[in-house]
Specification:
heterodimer, A: alpha/beta, Rossmann fold, 2 domains, seven-stranded mixed β-sheet, 11 helices, 15 strands, disordered N terminus, B: about 325 residues, mainly alpha, 15 helices
Chain lengths: ~375, ~325
């Protein structure tokens, strides 16, 4: 449907050049309490000292459990939220405290795709209005008029351009997400921050939308910060991946590093949770490590409250390797022995760089008791 | 529905691809409204009342009477020695369709038409002011939040704490006194203006409250964030993103507010702090009617019936508008 349409030429800027850089990015949401005078009694440390770099043309994946600060990081980078501390720069220009007018020239280059396709489109506006809105706001008048451009964009994202006058409620979730993508593309951005763009969609639709984003990245050279909790989707889409836990990045590296040679125990635990699937003939395992069976890691308990995160290493309360040092000393995000360049992990006692595992790690006592009983009975 | 695949573009069978014009929520609302028979009938009734109000002079001209002439005093044989109409049923005749007013002998039909005119004018003006104020305050409080929201909220609480009817009665003479010294006669236009002001001052808070809550929930929606990401100004976000989503509560609230204010105005005139003689007024007809109803029940019948029909029709209209906007409503 879209091969006839010429996509806009790739953006200028050589691939690999750092576009969007965050240094020590921190967001603490204050908790107010007290009566009659409200005062600050604490803070949710949603994001606490995150460093990341999105390079031109690449897809940078950000994974982690719910509530680990992924989405907050995305919203900080688009300046929807004001950072408590840290620095955000775009192409070397500091935009941490820039106001709306100062941001105006950069706004068009950093766009966002939202998680919920049902609340991210204004129900009272037509598709045409939704997609042309950003052009109107930024005073962009493309050759041939805005309407023609909107129809072109709808075609690019795989929608019928005749849907110009329709309303969001007439579309399915996948189609709505495509409208959201078209809106993000309207300003010809260089970076798109995709905040769990497929997690609200059907599995069958997820692949279509991810492939659409992948095509846009390749053909238009748009860099992506891809926020997701689905490891398989990130593996499919991102060249570099960062793993977040409780507001901090615990491991960052290339896709091959993270999925093939992870070092941080949390990354190991996450990867062991990816379900293994077999082909019909049972030969090839998808998601399984090359060679050897895979022991599973089951963490105990919940993620600690970000109001009072554990001292030292934040993962220590759920880590099977935790020692006294982990409680006192926060592990820096560094290149561990045997890691490739750019593969950083924050752990005092990194795991061996493989996902193959012979022993099962079960931290939950109740679960272990149940499995033991199962084993004894069967 | 699924996402379109290249093989099958998402066009419904039977629709020509060239005419893929979607129906807006507004259009859908109008379609649903047209199917609601009670709503359509009450809409006609409401329109009829507005036509009567606007066309009162026309009715007077065609009918050949006016509301101020005291027919019963000018001509003998219409009122008896006690001041009541001679003819049965309050003096209803081919000449005076709704009968005559006791004592003064004025024509009831034109009195009612002009009375509706006065009451509706006051209520409509007060409603318009209330809606504008409610939208301004509510949207401001909801969108800005924080300290602004807190102080506006406490101000609304303060005004809501006033007992409404009592405050109307107490404050109306005070406001009159502000405009004109108590010894002088208050001009009619000032009385009307005062009534509008008093009804407005204590009438806008409900809508403001409601809209504040709506804006609070709307502004967290992702489409507002999407607009912010593209660099939209707060003004644009309020007018283009939020207000179109607020028309439903605004419309529903104002259709329910108008009959309330009509009755409130009638109540004030009934008590005697509203519009005074010789300006015809709906509420004052009740006051007069109450004086005579033991001897001449017909006089209160027509204004009362008209008021009941009007208020019921307007409330039904408000309900239907709400149902039409929200298809999930089940009654």
């Amino acid at each position: 449907m879209t091969d006839k349409v010429s996509l806009p030429a790739p953006r200028d800027g050589s691939p690999g050049e750092p576009l969007l850089v965050a240094e020590g990015l921190t967001k603490h949401f204050p908790i107010m309490g007290g009566f009659p005078v409200k005062r600050r009694i604490g803070a949710v440390q949603a994001v606490d000292g995150v460093d990341l770099t999105v390079r031109a043309g690449e897809s940078f994946g950000l994974v982690g459990e719910s509530g680990c600060g992924k989405s907050t990081t995305g919203r900080l980078l688009t300046r929807l939220l004001e950072p408590t501390a840290g620095r955000i720069s775009y192409r070397g220009e500091d935009i941490t405290r820039a106001g709306r007018r100062q941001l105006a020239p950069i706004r068009s280059e950093i766009q966002m795709i939202f998680q919920d396709p049902y609340s991210s489109l204004n129900p009272r506006q037509t598709v045409g209005k939704i997609v042309s809105g950003p052009m109107e706001i930024n005073g962009i008048n493309p050759a041939g008029g805005r309407e023609a451009r909107v129809r072109e964009l709808l075609d690019v994202v795989g929608l019928n351009p005749e849907h110009y006058n329709r309303f969001p409620h007439e579309f399915s979730g996948g189609q709505r997400q495509r409208i959201g993508v078209a809106r993000a593309l309207a300003l010809e951005p260089k970076v798109i921050i995709a905040d769990e763009p497929v997690s609200a969609l059907d599995v069958s639709i997820q692949a279509q939308v991810v492939n659409l984003l992948g095509r846009l990245r390749r053909e238009m050279g748009i860099a992506f910060l891809f926020i997701a909790h689905d490891l398989a989707v990130v593996r499919h889409f991102s060249q570099r991946v960062a793993v977040m836990y409780l507001g901090k990045i615990v491991e960052v590296g290339t896709r091959e590093d993270i999925y093939g040679r992870p070092r941080h125990p949390y990354t190991h635990a996450l990867l062991s949770a990816v379900p293994e699937t077999h082909d019909a003939d049972g030969t090839r395992r998808v998601g399984a490590p090359p060679g050897g069976s895979r022991g599973r890691i089951r963490l105990a308990g919940d993620v600690p409250s970000p109001v009072m995160p554990p001292s030292g290493c934040r993962f220590r309360t759920r880590c099977w390797k935790a020692q006294a040092r982990c409680a006192t000393e926060e592990p820096p995000l560094t290149r561990a022995d045997g890691n490739t360049e750019g593969h950083l992990s924050a752990c005092h006692f990194p795991e061996p760089p493989t996902v193959a595992r012979n022993t099962e790690v079960i931290l939950d006592p109740a679960l272990r008791a149940a499995e033991d009983a199962d084993g004894a009975g069967g | 529905m699924t996402s379109p695949s290249p093989a099958a573009p998402a066009t419904e069978p039977g629709t020509a691809p060239a005419e893929l014009i979607g129906r807006s929520p507004g259009q859908l609302m109008r379609r649903r409204f047209r199917r609601d028979r009670a709503g359509v009938v009450s809409a006609f009734v409401v329109v009829f009342f507005f036509l009567v109000a606007v066309g009162a002079p026309l009715i007077s001209m065609v009918y050949g009477k006016d509301p101020t002439t005291t027919y019963g005093l000018n001509e003998t044989g219409l009122l008896n020695q006690f001041g009541y109409p001679v003819q049965p049923n309050g003096g209803i005749s081919g000449r005076f369709w709704f009968g005559l007013e006791p004592t003064l002998g004025r024509d009831v039909l034109t009195q009612l038409a002009y009375g509706i005119r006065t009451s509706l004018l006051i209520a409509a003006a007060a409603t318009a002011l209330c809606v504008v104020t409610g939208v301004l305050v509510g949207v401001t409080a909801g969108y800005l939040g924080g300290r602004t929201d807190y102080f506006l909220g406490r101000f609304i609480d303060l005004l809501l704490a006033f007992p409404q009817q009592l405050s109307f009665v107490a404050f109306t003479p005070v406001v009159y006194a502000l405009f004109v010294s108590p010894e002088k006669e208050t001009p009619t236009y000032l009385r009307v203006l005062t009534l509008i002001l008093v009804l407005w001052a204590l009438g806008w808070m409900g809508l403001a409250r409601l809209l504040r809550g709506q804006v609070l929930s709307l502004r967290e929606r992702e489409f507002v964030e999407a607009a912010k990401v593209t660099g939209a100004s707060p003004w644009r976000i309020i007018t283009r993103e939020l207000l179109p989503n607020l028309w439903t509560p605004i419309l529903v609230q104002s259709t329910l507010m108008l009959p309330t204010l009509v009755t409130a105005e009638a109540g004030l005139s009934f008590i005697g702090v509203g519009v005074v003689e010789p300006t015809p007024d709906w509420g004052r007809m009740f006051a007069n009617g109450a004086k005579y109803y033991e001897s001449d029940v017909t006089y209160i019948f027509f204004p009362g019936l008209a008021m009941i029909i009007f208020v019921v029709a307007f409330n039904l209209l408000g309900d239907s508008v709400r149902d039409a906007f929200d298809p999930r409503t089940r009654r």
